[in-house]
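Researcher: Sequence recovery benchmark, item below. Answer with residues only.
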């Protein structure tokens, strides 16, 4: 394909680790545009009650209406999002795990995946540039998952910049288990601790040369410093547009009412000591690599 490459920022994480916060802050940067979890867009369009980041139901959003009028058929194709099974569910473990781990790549559907995603990104970039009255240079995809990241990194049409955001595993476990009874919390803590280890490892393996790791705790404590570091890494000026409308899809509910950044550390008082112990036991080696458990 002779088309100019599209610069993509891919935000990867376990989930509940600050990915929505990060993309909303990056969206304010001049010439950046967030799509949210674009892999969920087809379900957003089919389920009429899903909302766009602007606050309107996505079915009534003028931005997505323009996108649908141009490439609605492509948005709904399974080939653009093969690793998502529903609006809120991503594949965590599947056959691609072996290929990612061995750096082996071969899939007959990959070219179609690249072609359709490039078509979607290109059209969104064009419409976003008109809507914001400036040239959009970076699109942001916060779909999070390692398999989508791996496939995107192997698309010659794209220049993928991976930002890997992690959270203290105890905070991650707390956010995933806080609404369950203790018995469920116990087993879910074990399961989610292993997910933390495996998924973060996969994200690192699936990332290309353009990779940057950040910690949720640092982002929430000093968002300006973190975003400046990212823009410097990308080689773009740190210039913000505060009232820029967000048309991202899916992600944390904060997308629809975002106005203040606050570090959430409720886990320190509310996570049971035994669950803290289990989490540390399983995730220690992995989390230490990301700056935890010093």
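Model:
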């Amino acid at each position: 394909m002779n088309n100019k490459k599209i610069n993509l920022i891919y935000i990867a994480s376990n989930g509940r680790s600050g990915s929505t916060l990060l993309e909303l802050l990056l969206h304010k940067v001049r010439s950046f545009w967030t799509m949210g979890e674009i892999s969920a867009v087809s379900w957003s369009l089919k389920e009429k009650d899903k909302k766009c980041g602007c606050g309107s139901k996505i079915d009534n959003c003028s931005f997505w209406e323009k996108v649908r009028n141009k490439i609605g058929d492509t948005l709904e194709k399974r080939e653009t999002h093969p690793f998502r099974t529903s609006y809120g569910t991503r594949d965590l473990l599947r056959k691609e795990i072996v290929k990612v781990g061995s750096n082996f790549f071969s899939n007959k559907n990959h070219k179609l995946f690249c072609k359709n995603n490039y078509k979607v990104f290109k059209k969104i970039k064009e419409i976003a540039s008109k809507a914001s009255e400036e040239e959009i240079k970076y699109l942001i995809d916060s779909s999070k998952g390692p398999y989508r990241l791996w496939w995107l990194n192997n698309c010659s049409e794209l220049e993928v910049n991976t930002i890997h955001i992690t959270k203290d595993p105890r905070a991650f476990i707390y956010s995933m288990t806080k609404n369950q009874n203790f018995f469920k919390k116990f087993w879910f803590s074990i399961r989610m601790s292993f997910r933390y280890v495996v998924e973060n490892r996969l994200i690192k393996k699936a990332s290309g040369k353009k990779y940057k790791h950040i910690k949720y705790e640092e982002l929430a404590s000093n968002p300006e410093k973190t975003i400046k570091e990212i823009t410097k890494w990308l080689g773009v000026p740190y210039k913000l547009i505060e009232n820029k409308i967000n048309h991202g899809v899916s992600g944390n509910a904060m997308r629809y009412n975002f106005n203040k950044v606050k570090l959430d550390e409720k886990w320190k008082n509310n996570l049971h000591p035994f669950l803290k112990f289990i989490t540390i036991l399983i995730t220690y080696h992995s989390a230490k690599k990301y700056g935890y458990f010093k």
